[in-house]
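Journal club side-thread
Mid-discussion, someone asked how the predicted structure for our own chain would compare to the paper's figures. Pasting it here so we can look after the session.
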Amino acid sequence: MNVLMLNGSPHRDGNTALALKEMEKVFVAQGVHTEILHIGGQAIRSCIACGKCRESGRCVFDDAVNAAASKFEACDGLVVASPVYYAAANPTLTAFLTRLFYSTRFDKTMKVGAAVVCARRGGLSAAFDELNKFFTISGMPVASSQYWNSIHGRVPGEAAQDAEGLQTMRTLARNMTFLMKSIALGKEAFGLPEKEPVQSTHFIR
């Protein structure tokens, strides 16, 4: 099993990273290989809807998005973690995800997704919902925990005091591991779900 973890915080060793590392300990203990990519501090521009990726299978902006594409394709699960800004995920991270998901043409069906959000106080559930939409539009099952996947902290390291948040991260990692392994067994026995041709309609017709 292989999990790709994206740190959407500009602070490489902040509270968002702390949450990911708490998950990583569980993954490693259960034999799951992990890799953390630090995205939040990079200069990631947004999608310009040029459509060139439909021709080439990669984004025209050759940055961390294209570098991560093969890792995304190879992984069994994707963890996306972000601090909360104005009840939303870090825009650098969402720009990265928009281009990553749209420019990669491989089938993402049954890769397991998990969103993690971190804030001083509020706005967590709105940011959590925002990130989960990347998974649910792509046929990716969403891993859950004992609570919404959130942790609290303001200054770096403060999230270590959030005992419930840390437990939520550990439970999420265990549940995600179980789901990935179960899906792998299911694919061996039954294959992937049958797909119908996509019906793309517009609201005006």
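Post-session note: Strands lie at 2-7, 33-38, 77-85, 88-89, 112-119, 150-152.
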